[in-house]
Specification:
two-stranded antiparallel sheet; Arc Repressor Mutant, subunit A; 2 strands; single chain
């Protein structure tokens, strides 16, 4: 199994370390981005494990709210997992998002991705049980 396949895209904390980061409004915004990112990471692994086709908007639906920052960063999930071989692009379609008329990629997990997702989700379940 590809060792990098279980790595998620860069976390917001890893990307935003400017001076003044922990000023109150920025800290609240960063905290909401981190919470969303963590929930979205699990959602992506569940989508990968399912084997069904999905688009980036499926992550927003799974989390239950849009990303609190620049929504284009959600595509990082897709590209990161594509680079590692966990998913592959299987087509395109108009977005289901009501805020855009863009054409988006449709993704589906690979066998290797489904195996990796099973491991990640099993480990997550163990952590939640402990």
């Amino acid at each position: 199994m590809n060792k990098n396949i279980r790595n998620s895209p860069p976390h917001p904390v890893q990307q935003d370390t400017r001076a003044g980061l922990f000023d109150a409004p920025q800290a609240v915004d960063l905290a909401s981005q981190i919470k969303w990112w963590d929930e979205a990471t699990l959602a992506v692994w569940r989508l990968i494990e399912s084997g069904s086709q999905f688009d980036a908007y499926a992550i927003t639906e799974a989390v239950g709210r849009p990303y609190p920052g620049d929504a284009r960063r959600v595509a990082q999930f897709m590209f990161k997992h594509s680079e590692t071989g966990a998913i592959r692009r299987v087509g395109f379609r108009p977005t289901r998002s009501h805020s855009s008329n863009a054409i988006v990629s449709i993704w589906q997990s690979t066998e290797e991705g489904r195996r990796a997702a099973a491991v990640v989700l099993r480990d997550e379940q163990r952590e939640q049980s402990a």
